[in-house]
Every structure is written in structure tokens, then in C-alpha cells.
Specification:
426 residues, alpha+beta, BirA Bifunctional Protein, domain 2, Rossmann fold, eight-stranded mixed sheet, five-stranded mixed sheet, 36% helix, elongated, binds histidyl-adenosine monophosphate
């Protein structure tokens, strides 16, 4: 048999202990913020029926699906969590107490073109609120993103959140170029989401593609791109139909964000529309202000997703925050912690005759809640002390023949540099 390759598939990651510790450290922060806001953790299978994800042709995510046929079933690894969450909400729609605040930390799979901070599997922290139609939900979600960034020590000027409203764009287009073709709005959003990546000319070209679902005239396509240039709400107001509710909602959202103390960290940006078709209202993305990385997180309101899946109408808003971009940013900002192997005490038997006594000591300490490494074999004491030092252990319990005869262990306190004795049995 050929030797198996030692490399994991391109775009996937092995997590050796050092990386795993970092990952858990980050997930702990995700969990702590979610729990501080009283969101409850849920989970769903990593494999779903492929049709759950193949709703909208044109979305990049559909082309990036890892999918396969098995026993006549067409299955897919989840590229995102939102459809699974929607499926779960739909299955219990009658009995759920709303608003429901749910969070997840899950691995997702997308066959993406790889760039810094983008892989083919990544973990995502999702926070979603179901059953709240007002922008208080979006404010709570955006507030949580900043809570996380603060907890990770990211300085406020390093990350901002760009906010827009698809409803605002939709109202403008329905009053104008899409007056007779409202169904072209979702595919149009998917195309204009690529503006940063492919540039205005390519976007105009795709908007005008006669064979596609949008098929605008060139002048109309350029008008659409023009609408995306607004960088503050007053400018957006000047281009929108008078009295649009979406604009009032955005103003209210910015007011609420002021109460969260994050007004300086959010900006209106009409070019943010997001690449997923299901968003219907406010949309937002966090980005590093140096512009070196792709979005740290993205989300928004998706009030019609449940209906498109055949369920009742329940308003919803949420975001997904990946693990990869934030780790790149923390690395750049030199904010990654040095996480030692977590050990409180080491217990060392000088010879195999003293091992039973060492086991008793280790068991007693573990039962008391300490993290204890029972040294295996009988390496040189110098090596054991070196290991203890590196892992940040507080104490080393030494069991030599003399100590065991007397029913005690010698206890070295590494920080104080002192040594004392403790009975083996309490
Ligand atoms: P998304 O913008 O596709 O939204 O992904 C959210 C975040 O996941 C991104 O901002 C990024 O941090 C991370 N991410 C996505 N793809 C990759 C990748 N290939 N490699 C590394 N990180 C990645 C969603 O997935 C929506 N379902 C979010 C949502 C939840 N909207 C409402 N609720």
C-alpha cells in the first residue's frame, strides 16, 4: 500500500496542542460573551441534506459546497450555520418562546479560493435572535461583537463595523430600476457584494448580462453602483425615496449603538450588501481598519428565510464570526497569548517501587480539583523540574524511598523556592 500523505487536505488544519489551546482560548471568549448576553448554546449536525443549502444559485457559497451522494441521499457539509438554525427553529416554531437567543460554535466547510484568514474549513461563532422585528436586535448583536473585541484586548481604532440596510437599497431600486422586476433584487445583491473584489466595471458587466437573472441596461447598472457610494446617512437619504422606513431604522440603530458606547466604532457604508441572498434589512461587517484582512464577521437581518424554507414568518437577525481572521489580526497586533500547558502540580516517583504512593498523591490532588501530571517512567529529576518550569506548574511532589517509608511526599513550591513535606494519605 502506498504511504499515506502526511498532509491534511489543502485548506484544512490540524490542531496540535499549542494550536488547540489557542482555539479553546478563543472559543472561551466567544462563549463568555454569548452567555453574558443570555444567549443559549445549540448545535446541529455537520452534515445536512444538500438542498438546505442550494436555495439560491448565484451565491458563491452554493458553488463552494462539499457535497456527496450516499445511499441515494444528497448530503452536504454545512458551509454556514444559519440554514441549520432556521431548520431547527422551523421544526419547533409553534412551541418556541420568542425572542429566542441562540449561539453556536461550529466548524463549517467551503471550497474557497484561499487567502490569508480564509480556509476551506473554519470555525464560526454565530449569535442569532429569532422573533424580534426591531433594530434593538441588531444593536444587541453588534454590541456583542464589540464586547468580544474588547475582551480580546483589540484596541478600539483597530476594528470598525460597517453598517448598511438592504431594505434601503431595495426601496431605492423598487422606486427606480427594479420597479417592474422585484425578483431581480436578491441576485443583484449577490453581484454587488463582489464590488470590492472585482471592481465597478465587472459589476456593471454582470448586472447587464442579458442571460442572467438581472439584465439591467448599462445606464441603470451604473446608477445602481452610484447608489453604493454613500458613506453617511445624510448622503444616503439624499439618494433614497423620501420617508423610507429603512432610513429611520438605520438612524434608530445608530442611536442605540451610541447607548452601547460604540458609536465611534461603527460607520454607515452603502456598499455593504453581503453575499448571501437571504438578508432583508440591516447588514453589517467588521473589518480591520488597516484594510489588510478580509471581514472578521458578518451578519444582518433575514426576516424571510423561514418562509423561503416553507415555514412561518419569523423575523431574525444574527452574525457569524470566524476564528481565522481574528487570529491573524491578533497575531499582527501581537495580542496572541502565550498559553502554557495547563498543569498545577507534578508528582514524581523516584523509582517504580514508589509509584503506588505517587498514584495515591496524584489521585488525592485531582479529586481536590487540581490539574496533576503524574510523571510516567523515571526520567532525570532535572528534566522533570525543567518541564514543571515550562508548564508553569506551581508544585512538584517528590516521592523517594525515604519519603515513602515515612509516609510523606516532599513538596517543592516552585515560585517560593521552598520545600516542605505533606502526608501521602491525608
Ligand atoms: P459569512 O459572511 O459568509 O456569513 O461568514 C461569516 C464569517 O465567517 C466571516 O466574516 C468570516 O469571519 C468567517 N468565514 C466565512 N468563510 C470563511 C472561510 N472560508 N475561511 C475562514 N473564515 C470564514 C455567514 O456565514 C452567515 N451565516 C452569518 C450569519 C449568521 N448571518 C446571520 N446569522
Amino acid at each position: 500500500m502506498a504511504k499515506p500523505t502526511l498532509q491534511a487536505p489543502r485548506g484544512t488544519r490540524d490542531f496540535y496542542p499549542d494550536e488547540y489551546r489557542l482555539r479553546e482560548w478563543l472559543f472561551d471568549h466567544f462563549r463568555r460573551v454569548a452567555k453574558a448576553c443570555c444567549f443559549e448554546e445549540v448545535d446541529a449536525p455537520m452534515v445536512e441534506h444538500a438542498e438546505l443549502f442550494t436555495r439560491k444559485a448565484g451565491e458563491e457559497i452554493v458553488q463552494q459546497l462539499y457535497h456527496f451522494e450516499l445511499h441515494d441521499r444528497h448530503l452536504a457539509l454545512r458551509p454556514e450555520m444559519t440554514p441549520s438554525i432556521a431548520r431547527m427553529v422551523m421544526a419547533r416554531a409553534g412551541g418556541l418562546r420568542l425572542p429566542a437567543r441562540w449561539f453556536t460554535i461550529t466548524q463549517n466547510w467551503r471550497y474557497e479560493r484561499m487567502t490569508r484568514g480564509r480556509g476551506r474549513e473554519h470555525f464560526q461563532w454565530n449569535m442569532d435572535i429569532w422573533g424580534e422585528p426591531g433594530v434593538a436586535a441588531e444593536a444587541e448583536l453588534i454590541g456583542a461583537v464589540f464586547q468580544l473585541l474588547d475582551a480580546l484586548g483589540v484596541p478600539a481604532p483597530a476594528v470598525k463595523i460597517r453598517i448598511n440596510s438592504r431594505a434601503l437599497l431595495e426601496e431605492s431600486l423598487r422606486a427606480g430600476v427594479l420597479a417592474k422586476r422585484p425578483e431581480a433584487f436578491e441576485p443583484l445583491c449577490v453581484v454587488i457584494d463582489k464590488l470590492d473584489k472585482i471592481g465597478a466595471d465587472a459589476v456593471v458587466e454582470q448586472l447587464c448580462d442579458g442571460a442572467g437573472p438581472i439584465g439591467l441596461a448599462p445606464a441603470a447598472a451604473r446608477d445602481v453602483v452610484g447608489l453604493l457610494e454613500a458613506r453617511d446617512l445624510d448622503e444616503a437619504a439624499a439618494r433614497a425615496p423620501a420617508g423610507t422606513p429603512a432610513l429611520a431604522e438605520l438612524r434608530r440603530l445608530f442611536e442605540l449603538l451610541d447607548a452601547y458606547g460604540v458609536a465611534e466604532r461603527v460607520v454607515f457604508d452603502a456598499s455593504v450588501v453581503r453575499g448571501l441572498a437571504y438578508y432583508t434589512g440591516v447588514v453589517f461587517e467588521a473589518f480591520d481598519t488597516r484594510g489588510a484582512l478580509r471581514a472578521l464577521c458578518g451578519g444582518g437581518r433575514y426576516d424571510r428565510l423561514l418562509e423561503t424554507l416553507g415555514g412561518p414568518a419569523i423575523p431574525a437577525a444574527g452574525f457569524g464570526f470566524g476564528d481565522m481572521v481574528i487570529l491573524e489580526l491578533l497575531k499582527d497586533l501581537e495580542l496572541l497569548p502565550q498559553l502554557a500547558r495547563p498543569v498545577d502540580d507534578l508528582v514524581y516517583a523516584f523509582g517504580e517501587d514508589q509509584r503506588p504512593a505517587a498514584i495515591r498523591v496524584a489521585s488525592r490532588l485531582r479529586a481536590g480539583g487540581r490539574r496533576v501530571e503524574l510523571v510516567l517512567g523515571t526520567p532525570k529529576l532535572k528534566r522533570v523540574l525543567g518541564d514543571a518550569d515550562r508548564s508553569g506548574a506551581k508544585r512538584v511532589f517528590l516521592l523517594g524511598p525515604d519519603e515513602v517509608d515515612r509516609g510523606v511526599a516532599a513538596v517543592r513550591d516552585l515560585a517560593a523556592g521552598t520545600q516542605s513535606e505533606e502526608p501521602i494519605e491525608p
